[in-house]
Write a structure and sequence with these properties.
- Helix 3 (about 175-180) packs across helix 4, helix 5 (about 210-220) crosses helix 6 (about 225-235) and helix 6 packs across helix 9 (about 300-320).
- The protein has 11 helices and 18 strands.
- It is globular.
- The protein is α+β, with helices and mostly antiparallel strands.
- The N and C termini lie far apart (about 55 Å).
Length: about 425
């Protein structure tokens, strides 16, 4: 599962087309800890890409574009309230122009390169296409306009009956979604791939007790996850030397007899059978000069909670070889801990399945040591509310340049243009 590129145009603050790429562009990135070989060694893909920019510049919007494409593929076939399942809106200046929003993802599946995308306008998919490279030349598996009403092109490379794919089509549906729902073998594989390739996560500071219980139960059942979480906390040097998973048993209605009296005995017994009889919590061991003591989840620092809320997500993403999309890497984390998360993906020992990390961040310290120039992206927004995207390579930096210093001095844009306060 590997992402090669993502293209979007007329999507929220990105009025013009931008292309985000995971191709290794520099010889310095052609190293085992920066990239991995793909498609008969003809191409190198990066393991990590970091997106910088001031607040409200469009960093999150760029990542949301990937999420919107995936959500549209997953939900467009179903008769649900689509605006709640996925949201695809144009730049505000294009609301009444009829210009569609375009989203396209380029990825590798089973050593073959694919491009899948669509155009969306006023609730309908005006175009949809799937292009593959089974050999050296591109092949259009299919291309539709207005759900196949005004244009339909199918390739002989697409197995199965072509026209039968259109029987259940409407302008507000994607063929890929409809074909998967109807069991088309080849397109179902593409659908499942897009569904599973991306793993999205936002950093949270207010993780609930429910999350603690869920993580504790996972750690209880999976010793490898338990070891991963413990190693992550120890390497982060947050003062935790060990973690205990505590199991607590409980009976439904034990603490509230008034509620129990509202239901008959038969209903209560059925509810008890289905309700969980135990829950889990975590206790964290901290050292003292003499001995140690255990503290609960709520007593841990924001930085520790940050790590815990993404621990199982990191573990699963690395195990599955997924494209892990993380909004706001940093937050309450010390810059060295943020760097250690990047190193998890850069490490050929830990990242054996070539997972990829795409993260927005304000942590400029990550620019130093272990990150190639082609792994750094900048999002800027002009005075008209239009965002743009550039790779650091576009600025032709020298190998001797202090990238972090030049970034903070504004050489690459993507920093807030502050004005003085007047009181």
């Amino acid at each position: 599962m590997s992402l090669v590129a993502f293209r979007l145009s007329n999507y929220l603050c990105f009025r013009d087309e931008v292309v985000f790429e995971m191709n290794a562009q520099l010889r310095s990135s052609l190293m085992e800890d920066h990239s991995f070989k793909l498609v008969d060694d003809r191409e190198e893909l990066l393991k990590v890409a970091l997106v910088y920019g001031p607040n409200a510049s469009g960093k999150t919007t760029l990542l949301d574009g990937l999420f919107a494409l995936r959500a549209a593929v997953l939900w467009s076939h179903y008769d649900v309230e689509k605006e709640k399942s996925f949201s695809i809106l144009p730049h505000i200046s294009e609301l009444d122009t009829g210009r569609p929003t375009e989203l396209e993802v380029e990825f590798v599946k089973d050593d073959q390169l694919f491009r899948y995308g669509f155009a969306f306008c006023d609730g309908d998919f005006t175009e949809e296409w799937l292009i593959g490279y089974p050999k050296s030349k591109p092949v259009t598996y299919y291309r539709l306009s207005d759900g196949g009403v005004t244009q339909k092109t199918f390739s002989d490379y697409l197995p199965g009956k072509k026209l039968s794919l259109l029987q259940d089509m409407r302008k507000d549906k994607l063929l890929l979604s409809s074909a998967a729902a109807n069991g088309h073998e080849f397109l179902s594989e593409i659908y499942q791939y897009i569904r599973s390739i991306f793993s999205f996560r936002q950093m949270e500071t207010s993780a609930t007790y429910d999350y603690e219980s869920s993580l504790a139960e996972q750690m209880q059942k999976d010793p490898e996850l338990y070891k991963f979480v413990l190693d992550l906390l120890r390497q982060a040097d947050v003062g935790v030397v060990n973690v205990r998973v505590v199991e607590e048993r409980f009976e439904l209605f034990d603490t509230d007899s008034s509620i129990q009296g509202m239901f008959n005995d038969e209903f209560i017994e059925k509810l008890k059978e289905r309700a969980p009889s135990k829950k889990y919590k975590l206790l964290f061991e901290h050292k003292l000069r003499e001995g140690s003591y255990y503290l609960p989840w709520v007593a841990q620092s924001d930085g520790t909670i940050y790590l815990l809320t993404i621990a199982s997500w990191l573990y699963e993403g690395l195990a599955d070889g997924a494209v892990c999309v993380l909004d706001e890497l940093g937050g309450s984390l010390h810059e060295d801990i943020a760097a250690s998360i990047v190193r998890l993906f850069q490490s050929p020992v830990v990242n054996k399945n070539n997972s990829q990390l795409i993260a927005s961040t304000h942590c400029s310290a990550l620019m130093e040591g272990g990150i190639g120039h082609d792994q750094i992206w900048f999002v800027t927004k002009n005075e008209f509310g239009e965002s743009d995207l550039n790779n650091l390579v576009d600025f032709k930096p020298r190998s001797s340049d202090n990238i972090r210093k030049k970034y903070k001095l504004g050489h690459y844009g993507a920093i807030p243009l502050q004005q003085s306060f007047e009181f």
